[in-house]
Amino acid sequence: MIKTDLMYEGKAKKVWKTDSEDYVIVEYKDDATAFNGLKKGTIQGKGIVNNKVANRLFKYLEENGVATHFVEELSDRETLVKKVEIIPVEVVVRNIAAGGLSKRLGIPEGTKLKSTVLEYCYKNDELGDPMINEYHAFALGICTAKELENIAYEAFKINKLLSDLLADLNIELIDFKLEFGRFHGKIVLADEISPDTCRFWDSKTGEKLDKDRFRRDLGNVKEAYLEIMNRLLGD
Ligand code: TMP
Ligand code: ASP
After folding, report:
1. What's the N-to-C CA distance of the chain in angstroms?
2. 92 and 45 together in one domain
3. CB of 178 sitting under 6 A from ligand 1
4. Which residues span the domain enclosing 27?
5. Which ligand is nearest to the CA of 37?
6. What angle do CA 190, 193, 198 make, to 5 degrees?
7. How many CB atoms lie within 10 A of CB 141?
8. Mutate-to-test residue for ligand 1 from 109, 177, 211, 214, highest number of ligand atoms within 8 A of CB
9. Are residues 164 and 211 in the same domain?
10. Could you tell me if residue 225 is inside a domain?
11. Measured from the CB, is residue 177 less than 6 Å from ligand 1?
């Protein structure tokens, strides 16, 4: 596959066209933003970590029956993926209260939820990614009921698979965000799964090993990303 024109540049990734209509190349950047782009910075090496972590997790999910956009890692920062039509919904799965949920509902961070919470946000930077429910998604024509049913089923399955994998590495999966796309009419997991899009806490110490270190100026940001990569891929 030959890399051709730049198709899109987002906050953390660039997407390049290829000579095939069905595939694109994602390039992970070190740029970091938070609070809808209000806070900006750079995390040295983040692009490499996120590329390798996401690919490790996508491969594991594929092996366990989850369809993803992953095709092949091309370099430290670049991966060949299926060109999907992204469904503009951020799917958030929560096991432990933190971040937005703690703020919204007044539940202290770290509180174990009695059952898993699934949330949808409409992917729209101008509106600040507002939370929506199924009815909004259908009313806006974002996706069909059948598609959302499939997405919710996959999200719960992914939660179980990732929680189990990470628990063995002494990482607690607090919450995470997924994005799905359509590839030849079929729903596949897309975007990335990385310390940018998940909350990972060390199971023994409770130390935060994710983007909250950047969002909240906790220090040792780069070190936390590397720690996640090393535990998942081995040093
Ligand atoms: P929240 O608690 O801020 O709503 O975040 C929930 C999860 O979603 C957390 O693991 C971080 C992730 N997330 C993103 O990946 N992108 C975003 O824009 C936001 C707000 C959260
Ligand atoms: N990715 C989002 C942004 O840039 C927010 C976040 O991850 O906190 O602004």
Report:
1. 30
2. no
3. no
4. 3-82
5. 2
6. 135
7. 7
8. 177
9. yes
10. no
11. yes
Q: Are strands 112-122 and 89-96 parallel, antiparallel or unpaired?
A: antiparallel
Are residues 183 and 123 part of one domain?
Answer: yes
In a domain, 121, yes or no: yes
182: CATH: 3.30.470.20
Confidence of residue 235 (pLDDT cuts 50, 70, 90): low
Q: Which atom of ligand 2 is nearest to the CA of 32?
A: 4
Instruction: Find out whether the beta carbon of 175 lies less than 6 Å from any atom of ligand 1.
Output: yes
Q: Of the residues 25, 52, 82, which one is the last residue of a structural domain?
A: 82
- Does 72 fall in a domain? yes
pLDDT band at residue 126 under the 50/70/90 scheme: very high
Rounded to 10 deg, the angle between the 46-63 and 145-167 helix axes is 110
Query: How many other CB atoms are there within 10 angstroms of residue 49's CB atom?
Result: 27
Report the nearest atom of ligand 1 relative to the CA of 210: 10
Do residues 18 and 113 share a domain?
A: no
pLDDT digits (tens, 9 = 90+) for 185-230: 999 999 999 999 999 999 999 999 999 999 999 999 999 999 999 9
